[in-house]
From TrEMBL:
A Pfam family of this chain: Methyltransf_12
Highest taxon in the source lineage: Bacteria
Presence of the UniProt keyword Methyltransferase in the record: yes
Name of the protein in its database record: Class I SAM-dependent methyltransferase
Lineage per the UniProt record: Bacteria, Bacillati, Actinomycetota, Actinomycetes, Micrococcales
InterPro entries, per the entry: Methyltransf_12, SAM-dependent_MTases_sf
Length: 282
């Protein structure tokens, strides 16, 4: 049953998730409208939104000329967008098929980028470089079982004074039954070390199906996310909660400028995203 909690080792869960994400690459190359990046200066909607929040937190207010690593970059649309904004970018992902697609997109867009195949939980050793900005975009950390290890990797990738930035789906959102006609909590908010298992042949983009439908995710409450970064020695700079998503989580969501939101007054009841910025002490 979807959402059922199961006990599974990290390596087995990782292997299943990798097979699923490898299958998604061709589907997402079709559904992500990559032709938009043929237009000089075109940015992904996610990065365009994030830069409005991220850049004022940087010392000179600009991402340009910064060393930026994008963790869990998938096929690189956001990574390429950061490069388009003037950053020197490195994209990290565990999927070789995704990185190959990202490299093709970068070549098509005419931008330079470095691509590193690695799990995010050992990214610092794989990249062996420090950055001004560590960036994570939407739909990422639910795939990780150990946020304490994640926080340590983030800190290790930052040079002194560097900034970590993440906008992701809110853990409260992920407790909801997306198929109900009203807001109903169905899944755990708090984790206990077990994984949630899902069998879904489709993906969040496009109409195609994958051969490897089984995936595993881990719920992480907001307190755990913040605590992992603080425990790694970072200082919290920003914590925000948003009412809009860049994808349709539920069929009931309505399209609004820039994404999707709950209808009517429900928009005031449940957060859709969280944004965190945290700085490594200089």
């Amino acid at each position: 049953m979807n959402g059922e909690h199961v006990t599974i080792g990290w390596e087995d869960a990782r292997a299943a998730n990798l097979a699923n994400w490898e299958d998604r690459v061709a589907l997402h190359e079709e559904s992500y409208e990559l032709g938009r990046y043929d237009e000089p200066g075109a940015l992904s909607d996610v990065v365009a939104d994030d830069l409005r929040v991220l850049e004022p937190l940087l010392p000179d207010g600009r991402i340009a000329d910064k060393d930026v690593v994008h963790l869990q970059c998938h096929i690189g649309t956001d990574t390429v967008s950061l490069a388009r904004a003037g950053a020197r970018v490195t994209g990290v992902d565990f999927s070789p098929q995704a990185l190959a697609a990202a490299e093709r997109l970068a070549a098509r867009a005419g931008v330079e980028a470095t691509w590193v195949e690695s799990d995010v939980l050992c990214a610092a050793a794989a990249v062996a470089h420090e950055f001004d900005v560590v960036y994570t975009s939407i739909g990422a950390i639910c795939w990780l079982d150990d946020l304490a290890a994640w926080g340590r990797q983030v800190a290790a990738l930052l040079r002194p004074g560097g900034l970590f930035y993440i906008r992701d789906g809110h853990p409260m959102l992920y407790t909801l039954d997306e198929d109900r006609d009203e807001l109903v909590v169905r899944y755990r908010y708090f984790g206990d070390g077990t994984a949630q298992t899902w069998d879904e042949a489709g993906t969040y983009a496009g109409d195609g199906t994958v051969a490897h439908a089984r995936t595993y995710e881990w719920p992480h409450p907001l307190s755990e996310i913040v605590s992992a970064l603080l425990a790694a020695g970072l200082e919290l700079v920003l914590l925000d909660e948003g009412r809009m998503l860049p994808w349709r989580f539920s069929p009931r969501m309505v399209e609004v400028p820039g994404g999707f939101a709950w209808p009517g007054e429900e928009r005031m009841l449940v957060p859709c995203t969280f944004t965190i910025a945290a700085r490594r002490r200089a």
